Amino acid sequence: MIPYGRHDITEGDIAAVVAVLRSDFITQGPVIERFEKAVAGYCGASHGIAVNSATSALHIACLALGLGAGDRLWTSPITFVASANCGRYCGAQVDFVDIDPLTYNLSVEALAAKLAQAETRGTLPKVLVPVHFAGQSCDMVGIRALADRYGFKILEDASHAIGGRYRDEPVGSCKYSDITVFSFHPVKIITTGEGGVAVTKDADLAVRMTRLRSHGITRDPRAMQGESDGHWYYQQLELGFNYRMTDIQAALGYSQMQRLDTYVGRRQELAERYDTRLSELPLVRPHRHPDTYSACHLYVIQVDPERTPLGRGVLFNRLRQEGIGVNVHYIPVHTQPYYRYLGFKHGDFPVAERFYVNAISLPLYPTMTEEQQNIVIESISMALR
Ligand SMILES: *Cc1c(COP(=O)(O)O)cnc(C)c1O
Asked: How confident is the model at residue 79 (pLDDT cuts 50, 70, 90)?
């Protein structure tokens, strides 16, 4: 089986993890901070907060931005459910903005129209979660301009996009946003097994997220109410969680960070090779926006129903039978039973739904060989011939 994504673990990664296992701290030790600094430094953000998943990072980021009951969070329907669920964890209402048919990212025109309408109804969002689909940044300049006009916060879900760039700045610089979140699940660009990091330029947001990841507890006497009782003393200031990452995971992440640019470079090469070699087939290939350098987490094609009678489902099954681990990203979140129960229905976000019907993610990962890629290309060509 050629999987759609795969992690890469080197002997160096293993040695880094083993060194932590032999050390005095296997969680909450010195490696967490080293990893946080490496991620924040790479992005040009000032603070990094490591947690046990991107889902946790999204949750505490929403809380730090003040999202609560009675508030609204908007995101894209073409994402993993976690980008929307973080709003629900905080008791907020979730709504979606349809996608751009070229980039598959949240459409800034659709956003502008929806905001204008929401303003008249008094239903403006507090937080917007733009998702950098497949590793390609959203139109952050357009989104920032709307945030300035309507006063919402921006939380970038960059789970696919570490190592990517937007207008010559790393994704995660937070130049246009309040907080950016990365995922280190094994199918993502680099991995910690499970894990996530939130980066920000705002010191107050960083303090708040650091507290929320560990039970809402502070050990900083300046943050306490009244006097500290002594060196052992801590105070719980609010209701937080145990969302901590371990040093074992951080050691793997720090070691993987050293190869981030190599990984993304290789993903780019393979994506360009797909672009060239699939160009004659009745497929829509990914659009590359000139403002972006994609981290190429996914290579998503759409079967073009106007040029082939072969449906997406048939092509998908045929490729799977041939041992090619294709996948589909994503089932529009608003069509999930949980979100339908909240009132959404088929037809609410037609561009996203049309995309979903034809989309297939092809295998793409840094250790994929050209021989493996040729097998994928050959199988697709045979099926569509
Ligand atoms: C993977 C992913 C997440 C969740 O990441 P975890 O680290 O598994 O919690 C959130 N959003 C998007 C877009 C993702 O792809």
From this structure: very high
Strands (E), 93-195: 93-96, 127-129, 153-157, 165-166, 169-170, 179-183
Q: Does domain 2-257 have CATH number 3.80.10.10?
A: no
CB of 255 shorter than 6 A to ligand 1 = no
Ligand 1 centroid, distance to 192 Cα (angstroms): 13
The reported pLDDT for the residue numbered 50 is 98
Domain ranges of the chain: 2-257, 260-384
Cis peptide before 243 (omega within 30 of 0): no
What spacing in Å lies between the alpha carbon of 80 and ligand 1's midpoint? 6
Mean per-residue pLDDT, 272-288: 97
Q: Ligand 1 atom closest to Cα of 184? A: 7
Strands (E), 149-275: 153-157, 165-166, 169-170, 179-183, 196-200, 217-218, 235-236
CA of 55, closest atom in ligand 1: 9
Show contacts of 13-17: CB within 8 Å, 24+ apart: 13/252, 13/255, 13/256, 16/251, 16/252, 16/254, 16/255, 17/248, 17/251, 17/252, 17/255
Distance 40 CA to ligand 1 centre (A): 19
- Does this model's pTM top 0.90? My answer is yes
Q: Do domains 2-257 and 260-384 have the same CATH topology?
A: no
Nearest-CA neighbor of 362 among 292, 277, 291, 289? Answer: 277
Q: Is the dihedral of CA 111, 116, 121, 127 positive or negative?
A: positive
- Burial of 151 by CB count in 10 Å (0-12 exposed, 13-18 middle, 19+ buried)? exposed
| Torsional sign, CA 341, 343, 346, 351 | negative
Q: Which among 208, 207, 202, 163 is positioned nearest to 182, based on CA atoms?
A: 163
Q: How far is the CA of 311 from the centre of ligand 1 (A)?
A: 28
Residue 104's φ and ψ, nearest 5 degrees, are 65, 5
The CATH fold assigned to 260-384 is: Aspartate Aminotransferase, domain 1 (3.90.1150)
Give me the pLDDT at residue 385, please. Answer: 84
